[in-house]
Design a protein that fits this description.
With 152 residues, the chain is mostly helical. The longest helix has 21 residues.
Length: 152
Amino acid sequence: MRNRIVDTAEELAREFHKDQKYGDKSYFWAHISDVVNRVKNHICNQVDSELWQEHIVCICAAYLHDVLEDCDVTEENLFTLIKQRSVYSFSGVEREMDVDVDCRHLMLVVKALTKRENEGYTTYIQRVKQNKYAAIVKYFDSEANMYACVLS
């Protein structure tokens, strides 16, 4: 089953990372999709219908985890793009309000994953650990990076 906010996160990741490289490969295909697949595999092993919305946020954050740090976009612009593109597939005021909440939740995770300028790595990791979903994505981001190092 497809989800509009997940589709939006994937589209935005492709757009923002389109000219970036990971070695000699496309950054999106070599890194972003690897992190997303690792997160999805983790979620498949943790299926709980009560946590469906949180799983969606985790997958979206995996797509967007490097956007604020590596691309030319602000938090405000990213939030607006996610909200605008996600709301079109829904009708009714109630669902639009849910999309706003979903987008705000997602942005909290993406912001937690974004290393700040002049922030030490230990401080960054301590901050990431404060957000359960950011910690999951960061774990699989690190795992994907380590795997890429072993292969090179």
